Amino acid sequence: MKAGLQVGAILAPRDVAALYGVTTTELARWRRTGDGPSFYVLGRNTIRYDSDDVTDWFNDPDNAYLHDYPAGQ
User: Fold this and answer.
1) Which of these, 16, 71, 18, 59, lies nearest to 40 by C-alpha position?
2) CATH fit for domain 10-66, picks 2.70.50, 1.10.10, 1.10.287, 3.40.50
3) Which of 22, 28, 32, 56 is the most exposed place for a label (fewest CB within 10 A)?
4) Which residues have a Cβ under 8 Å from the Cβ of 30 and sit 6 or more positions away?
């Protein structure tokens, strides 16, 4: 888990982008294609991610071809 990130924290796309070095555009594309971490739609324009799901997804070697974040961090 990233330092300073609380277990079960809810993250906005901009927070995920800042923590993992991806863009919000990439996150949106992954949501459309079903490739990225699981997410929740809380309203028409409100997307949120569970920090545990995001951490697991970025550390999964099967997803490494989609991003530059080093697995195991």
Assistant:
1) 16
2) 1.10.10
3) 32
4) 36, 37, 66
